[in-house]
């Protein structure tokens, strides 16, 4: 039935319709740059633009929110908790005015409460400041300021910056803009800031170092935001600020300069994303929408790159860089979280398809290790957001040591995308759910294409093998949609194990990283303790945990390890573990052993991660919904981690 709907309406519509039908059946379904900034100068009610913008930034993760609006003076409101509470307060206080700034805070220094929420002011409350990032030397600065008589209301590092600006401004004859400049020159750490002053009610002053900010360029109105989602409905024209740049934004224009006052002319970029892309489109959660988009996003990622009729891969972003990559002494992949898992899949792919040796590093570890990287090596950084602090630091360190650095990023124009020597965008569209899904499959798709390209370049991938891979890769989007057409077994498993305290995920070869990713998804959104292991490693520890209460998810989808994985399943079964298998259609032996067998279409072994991960994403999703967890904004997590 679902299939017939597919042929009548467009593909995206049909996915939504199909899912709504599924929802009716399921009646029980009832980032850290983590902080977010929005500022507005124009003819509209600033509070409305800011509140809507803050709502669009909620996905980044936050625990308090606030805003300041200029009118005849300056009105500041703050709340602990949700933007919806801020909206209620704003209505009550009638915050009128056409210029203002807003913020969602993810606590680092000082507990999440109203006092530590932004905006912050100095002692005289003449200006308001919102800040993303961390002022690392805030303690020294605070003590100096306290000696000079400044009193602090809370513990936040941002409050210290506000007082520092006030101190400099009041004790010298420089103007407010210069006072901000001088304060920032004394600051160690990272910042994206926006400031409004009640005696300069026509402007927002913004500055950036290590924490992204962009200016939205409108007509008779201008915006500032930490990413494009709050401004996309008003304008597609944006100017990206670089580190140590500042700007003054008014309703009629903007002026950018360096922190040392050198005026700059900035390029205006056109955003490719649409409003529809950042809205839920009929799904109850962004995460589910993003899971269901994966047929399309993988296809988008391959468009113009997988040239089927010519049996080749073309990656425009790597043109001129492939020889160096193919001849690299070592390839080091650095990333965090889910992107690190896709890097691990990349390791298997590069080794198998291109005979290249790869090391995959947690970016946070790489930067503090003894660095043996130099110009003979190539680093590939993988990041959905393109803003993760540790990944960025690894990139900069590798570059500093002379290595070529390539990027695999989703967010166009992000810092990592701009700082790498070359790279490939994943083109998955905005990913809003904090738990990454479509970005993972797009990253693996890019890594697969890179490995195939390098396999040809290194002459280790035969014509016949290339042909088979090209054909199979081209069929992946269809196969993803096939999996998404019937989620009933996954829902049943989710129902049965909703309250399991632990889960074990096992996989071998290409699907070992998928086991890690499945466990991570469950941890992130349902708060169930889960571990991923290479299946054979089970014998070296986790097997001790297995009893009749332990759900064990086994990814049994690769042919070349089939016998081994069947033995591992026997071992689980002998200890009465509850076996849930992800297997390829027609794979022998699995159905006999597993209590639940979730089947995925057959494909080439090296491409199975692209399919096997889908049921695992759904399993985590359904369990989280059953447990009434906050799927899109899980506790303590942020979409983009721009602090170390
Ligand atoms: C955070 C997110 C994860 C993401 C990781 C790396 O932890 O919650 O979903 O995988 O950062 O982010 P990146 O943007 O660099 O891929």
Notes on the structure:
It is a single chain. The chain is of the alpha/beta class and 644 residues long. The chain has three domains: 246 residues, Aminohydrolase, N-terminal nucleophile (Ntn) domain (Glutamine Phosphoribosylpyrophosphate, subunit 1, domain 1, 4-Layer Sandwich); 199 residues, Glucose-6-phosphate isomerase like protein, domain 1 (Rossmann fold); 159 residues, Rossmann fold (3-Layer(aba) Sandwich). Strands 3-2-4-1-9-8-10-14 form an eight-stranded antiparallel sheet, covered by helices on one side. A six-stranded antiparallel sheet has the order 5-6-7-11-12-13, covered by helices on one side. Strand 12 and strand 13 form a beta hairpin. Helix 11 runs antiparallel to helix 18. It binds 6-O-phosphono-alpha-D-glucopyranose (G6P).
Helix count from the secondary structure assignment: 21
Could you say how many structural domains there are in total? Answer: 3
Which second-level CATH architecture of the largest domain applies? 4-Layer Sandwich
Q: Give the overall shape.
A: globular
CATH class of the largest domain: Alpha Beta
As laid out across the biggest beta sheet, the strand order is 3-2-4-1-9-8-10-14
The H-level CATH homologous superfamily of the largest domain, spelled out, is Aminohydrolase, N-terminal nucleophile (Ntn) domain
Q: What is the overall pLDDT average?
A: 90
Strand content: 15-25%
